[in-house]
Design brief:
The complex is a heterodimer. Chain A is mainly α. Chain A has 22 helices and 2 strands. Chain A has a two-stranded parallel ribbon. In chain A, helix 13 packs parallel to helix 22. The two termini of chain A are 37 Å apart. By secondary structure, chain B is mainly alpha-helical. Chain B has one domain. Chain B is 69% helix and 0% strand. Chain B contains 3 helices and no strands. In chain B, helix 1 packs antiparallel against helix 2. The chains are: A mainly alpha, B mainly alpha. At the A-B interface, helix 1 and helix 9 of A face helix 1 and helix 2 of B.
């Protein structure tokens, strides 16, 4: 499947080089502020809410977002917006209003450390290790996707791209730690918005606006055997799994994505929580995810629309836009890069490609900084060498940055087996985050939850995820990494997405039930006094009376939820 | 704040804006066939330049404000 390589001109390379210079320059300018391990890992808790908020979404704006959401926009159409309006915003509001008081208030330095304070050492160790593995995978996927893309689209050497992106990310984190990562994430945020916006505007103009696009998508939908609106409505075709290209029905969508996966990710994944923990006050920490939700809800226009336009172009040209594989399915992962090449002249093309690279690097950097902190505080300082000087741990953090990036490179080469990288990430989340959210819910809102309950509940949840994944298969896949590795196929799902949603639902339910059951038969290991500030009922209510009403987190939350509801209704 | 983030943001987009605007003025018309005949480099370059200048404006105003009121919050972190 040869793809015509995009020719970059001098102006495109200039833009790319200017960007790299700024990225490394920020790291260089911040290096003198890194004096203690807290500066390196938590930005010395000195980040204003707006910066933390933009970094909060940008850290998550990695490969899975720009390439994955574009790919899903082409593959599933407007239903992809559920990843935002159902699968992100409600959970972001929840973490800001209900969970941040515990995270920020307990002075824990990481999510695993919170688990140690709330439960016990083994729960923390388990989470620290699974999380470390997961971040390395995510970061590896980012790196793999970037290198693969540059190879296909620009004809760059795969290995050179891996090394180049690894060295740049390593450079700025090594120099400036989390502050540098956060600052660059904000820079990347603006670059991604301003780099992709002209593409979306041109694409929409070419299609004849939203009306013209939906008309063309009707052809896509009817050709694939669905109702005419299957690519342009978000909720309309969720009554049955067979009625929409994603192969899910509303219950799997709301429970699997909207509740378990989404809350599991946004509320317990240290990668994003770390950004809010770096905020300069409790109010700023609580406003971080809420401020992040405002631009987040508009992101479908930026990342999903290009994919939808790509598939519309593909259909109007009788399959002549996206490269088609030997089995006749288009390569959805190339939707966004093909769009860049199609609409942008040299100059803006350089900006668009730079934005694409920025998104990969912010995703990688987010994972590497989170990996750093968890490894150094929760594994090294706790189990390997406790009681060393702060300078020692700062040093370890810097060495870990190098190791984390090397491990990501290794993971990048392992990520080559999935057609849609988003599916692979969702799979990892289903194994790790989905059961964890049950542990957090019970831990924060039920003081009777015991350390043994949490630990064995988590194990049960992860085992349930593995068991479910091992016995089911998405349609058309062969047993192995994609499922049914236990040998028998009990159920076949219409798509990988549906399979992942249900894996998450099983994992969460198993963990929830097992944690309650085990907690009831084991003795409490923490007294009410020790749980002050860690459990809802034992923490004094935060009153925001000293803040003007329109600046209070609760006001912001209502605004965010209202706007999300409106968006859901408009694109129903 | 340790380094006013608006400064590098403003500088970078200012530079991008200048590059694209100038390129938009000197480049051949033929390259704009794919962008529906619109000189997007020129127009988007001006947008980026404006964005960069606004950010720089905020950064400069911020630095004046910090110099006039040296709040204890900032000095304690040095």
């Amino acid at each position: 499947m040869p793809v015509q390589h995009i020719q970059l001109s001098a102006v495109d390379y200039t833009i790319l080089i200017v960007y790299f210079a700024f990225v490394l320059g920020i790291g260089w300018a911040l290096r003198r502020f890194v004096k203690s391990s807290e500066d390196f890992f938590l930005s010395g808790r000195s980040i204003p809410a707006w910066i933390a908020g933009l970094a909060f979404i940008s850290a998550n704006l990695g490969a899975q977002e720009v390439i994955g959401m574009g790919a899903s926009g082409a593959k599933y159409g407007m239903m992809t917006s559920h990843f935002y309006w159902v699968g992100a915003i409600p959970a972001m509001v929840f973490v800001g209003i209900f969970m941040m008081p515990f995270y920020y208030g307990s002075r824990a330095r990481s999510v695993p450390e919170y688990l140690k304070l709330r439960f016990d050492e083994k729960t923390r160790g388990f989470n620290a290790i699974t999380f470390a593995v997961m971040t390395v995978f995510s970061s590896g996927i980012s790196m793999y996707a970037l290198a693969k893309l540059l190879e296909l689209v620009l004809g760059w050497n795969f290995h050179t791209s891996v090394v180049l992106s690894a060295v740049v990310v390593l450079g700025y984190i090594f120099l400036g730690g989390l502050t540098s990562a956060i600052y660059n994430e904000v820079l990347q945020f603006f670059l991604i918005v301003l780099g992709f916006l002209p593409l979306v505007l041109l694409g929409l103009k070419d299609m004849g606006g939203w009306g013209g696009l939906t008309a063309k998508l009707e052809t896509v939908a009817t050709n694939a055997g669905y109702a005419a609106g299957a690519w342009s409505n978000s909720w309309h075709h969720l009554n049955a799994a067979s009625a929409n290209p994603m192969g899910v029905e509303w219950f799997g969508m709301v429970m699997g994505l909207g509740f378990v996966l989404s809350f599991g990710y946004w509320c317990t994944d240290f990668l994003v929580v770390q950004r809010a923990m770096a905020a300069d006050s409790m109010t700023a920490a609580r406003r971080t995810p809420l401020l992040a939700a405002l631009p987040k809800m508009l992101f479908p226009a930026l990342v999903i629309l290009p994919g939808m336009i790509a598939i519309a172009l593909h259909a109007t040209r009788q399959g002549g836009f996206l490269p088609v594989g030997s089995d006749g399915t288009p390569n959805y992962n190339l939707a966004v890069p093909m769009m860049l090449a199609h609409y942008l002249p040299s100059g803006l093309l350089g900006l668009g490609l730079t934005a694409l690279m920025a998104s990969f690097m912010s995703g990688m950097a987010g994972n590497v900084t989170a990996f750093n902190t968890v490894w150094t505080y929760d594994i090294y300082q706790s189990y390997v060498r406790p009681g060393q000087s702060d300078a020692h741990y700062l040093r370890v953090g810097q060495v870990t940055t190098v190791c984390g990036i090397l491990l990501s490179v290794a993971a990048a080469y392992a990520a080559t087996r999935f057609n849609n990288i988003l599916d692979m990430l969702q799979l990892v989340f289903a194994f790790v985050n989905a059961p964890l959210f049950a542990t957090f819910l019970l831990g924060m809102f039920w003081r009777r939850t015991t350390g043994h309950g949490a630990f064995f509940g988590l194990l049960t949840g992860t085992a349930a995820a593995a068991l479910h994944h091992g016995l089911v298969l998405p349609q058309g896949a062969v047993p192995g990494l994609k499922g049914a590795f236990l040998g028998t196929v009990l159920h076949t799902y219409p798509s990988e997405m549906a399979q992942n949603f249900w894996t998450a639902i099983f994992a969460w339910s198993a963990c929830f039930v097992a944690t309650i059951a085990i907690s009831l038969v084991t003795a409490r290991n923490k007294s009410d006094d020790e749980l002050k500030g860690l459990v809802y009922a034992l923490t004094p209510r935060l009153t925001d009376r000293e803040i003007v009403w329109y600046k209070r987190p609760a006001t912001l939350a209502v605004l965010v939820l209202g706007l999300t509801l409106i968006l859901n209704v408009i694109f129903w | 704040m340790k380094l006013d983030l608006r400064l590098p943001i403003g500088l970078m987009f200012g530079v991008f804006g200048v590059i694209l605007t100038v390129y938009g003025l000197v480049s051949e018309k033929a390259i704009y066939d794919r962008s529906l005949g619109i000189n997007v480099n020129l127009w988007w370059g001006l947008v980026l330049l404006a964005f960069g200048l606004v950010m720089l404006g905020f950064a400069i105003r911020g630095s004046f404000a910090r110099r006039s009121i040296q709040s204890p919050h900032h000095t304690s972190r040095a």
